[in-house]
Design brief:
With 483 residues, this protein is an alpha+beta fold. The chain contains 18 helices and ten strands. Helix 6 runs parallel beside helix 14. It is elongated and about 85 Å long.
């Protein structure tokens, strides 16, 4: 155990050095200067340097779309010691400024992906990576509808959708795309398919449900778990198909449609049934099907949610819907001997980590706090928030890794993101210019997180730490896991 604590201190020191390099590079390095020149945000020397502008939009910009230009002018004078007129500041929110912040954000994402390639723990885990993709909608003022059209009707005329690919083992944003509110989730699938790696696990929401996509994952040697749509047709092979005169199988009799209602009727609460030779949809994707009958309490909660959606979308509830409200049903290509039905469900619950992230985006980082401003000012606000979120996620992932290595109870995403944001807002002056001071600052931050960020334990609830132990994480083996 003593060696574990010693290794925890070593990993903490290593990760602190990484965070120091990341934060120092974001706010005061040749990188920022080069990106400003590349995007023509900086053409000549001026009072408002690229580093100052980044700090304004990232560290002090939580209300960039709500504060007056006069207030932002005062904030720059207090934090940076420069005096620039409100009119001149307004002119700095332009297309070049947006391109500059977007480039910086994409560079940080790239750096995260590069750092995640070095993971000594991969050889000990069931999966090399666990990827979750999800999207969140943000309603915008109507004046932005030309660039970010919304669905209209009872919803806003202007909206955007952010697609996030979150890698759970490293705790990083591997891909983050900003689209208009009318973009469907399934439009992201080609980007997801371009980055498939052998041995990784994809946890899919119904918005990304597509049998051909699952087939692609399987062919590339990756794994998936997904719920299925109620409209999906499920088949099994016909053991007695009809044959044509030429001796070939009559395709119309090759498969028999499976009745989900018939399969679930014999199940008692908590019971599961699974089939390893089920075929899904028109492409007849072969998959493992797992059906579990819900408890009365879970069924009641599901029906309440269904009723809400029925009222929202003016749907008519059919008897068939009652069957689906009483079950969990998954498809996967993970072999049963590798992960049983119970752990398949537990693995899928990890997908909700990304939903917790979106809640933090809106409740703590106020990414949806947008009032009527010009387009470029809003976009600077948006990329400023996303940059801050990437930096905060880096701190959070390091903190979670250390907590797991030390055998501490799991940390709460909400608590530790709140603490991290509070600290980042005080990252001024010498803190980001002096690496030694920055290291001390970050060490103190992580110590506070470890003391104050523990998750409240819920009876009967399986934590992500427990699930990761099942996956093969063992601090006695060693490694550098960062969830």
């Amino acid at each position: 155990m003593q060696s574990t604590f010693k290794r925890g201190a070593t990993i903490m020191s290593k990760k602190i050095r990484y965070l120091v390099k990341l934060l120092h590079g974001t706010f005061s390095s040749p990188l920022t200067e080069s990106l400003a020149l590349k995007t023509r945000f900086k053409i000549r020397k001026g009072k408002l340097t690229p580093e100052m502008f980044v700090r304004l939009c990232v560290l002090y910009g939580k209300d960039l779309c709500e504060s007056s230009l006069n207030r932002l002018h005062s904030r720059l004078f207090i934090t940076e010691g420069i005096s620039i007129s409100p009119q001149a500041l307004d002119q700095r929110f332009n297309v070049n400024a947006v391109a500059f912040l977007r480039e910086l954000f994409e560079t940080l994402i790239y750096q995260h992906n590069e750092s995640s390639k070095i993971n000594p723990l991969q050889q000990n885990m069931l999966f090399t990576k666990i990827k979750v993709v999800d999207g969140t909608d943000i309603q915008l003022p109507n004046n932005l509808a030309a660039t970010y059209p919304g669905s209209g009707g009872s919803a806003s005329k202007s909206a955007l959708k952010i697609q996030l690919e979150y890698e759970l083992l490293q705790g990083i944003f591997s891909v983050c795309q900003v689209n208009s509110g009318t973009t469907s989730d399934s439009a992201y699938l080609p980007y997801n398919e371009a980055r498939i790696e052998k041995g990784e696990l994809h946890l899919k929401d119904l918005g990304y449900y597509k049998a051909a996509h699952f087939e692609k994952l399987d062919l590339e040697g990756a794994f998936y778990i997904s719920k299925i749509k109620r409209s999906t047709h499920i088949y099994k092979k016909n053991s007695n198909p009809e044959f044509k005169k030429d001796g070939t199988i009559d395709k119309r009799t090759e498969y028999i449609k499976v009745d989900i209602q018939h399969l679930t009727q014999p199940l008692l609460e908590g019971q599961s049934v699974e089939f390893s030779d089920i075929y899904i949809g028109q492409v007849k994707l072969k998959a493992r099907l797992i059906i579990t009958k819900l408890s009365a309490e879970s069924k009641k909660s599901r029906e309440k949610k269904d009723k809400k959606n029925i009222r929202k979308w003016n749907k008519i509830k059919m008897d068939y819907d009652k069957t689906w409200a009483s079950i969990n049903i998954y498809i996967t290509n993970i072999p049963q001997q590798m992960v049983d039905a119970v752990h398949t469900h537990l693995l899928y619950t990890l997908r909700w980590q990304v939903e917790n992230i979106f809640k933090v985006w809106k409740s703590t980082f106020k990414i949806d706090a947008v009032k009527k401003v010009k387009l470029e000012r809003f976009q600077c606000f948006l990329y400023g928030r996303l940059i801050e979120l990437v930096l905060a996620a880096s701190v959070v992932s390091v903190s979670k890794a250390i907590a797991m290595l030390k055998g501490m109870k799991p940390l709460s995403e909400k608590k530790i993101f709140d603490i991290t944001k509070e600290f980042l807002e005080h990252l001024t002056g010498i803190n980001y210019k002096n690496k030694k001071a920055l290291s001390k600052f970050l060490t103190g931050l992580i110590q506070v997180i470890l003391r104050r960020g523990g998750k409240s334990e819920k009876k009967g609830h399986t934590s992500y730490a427990d699930i990761f132990k099942f996956l093969g994480y063992d601090p006695e083996i060693g490694g550098d896991l960062a969830i």
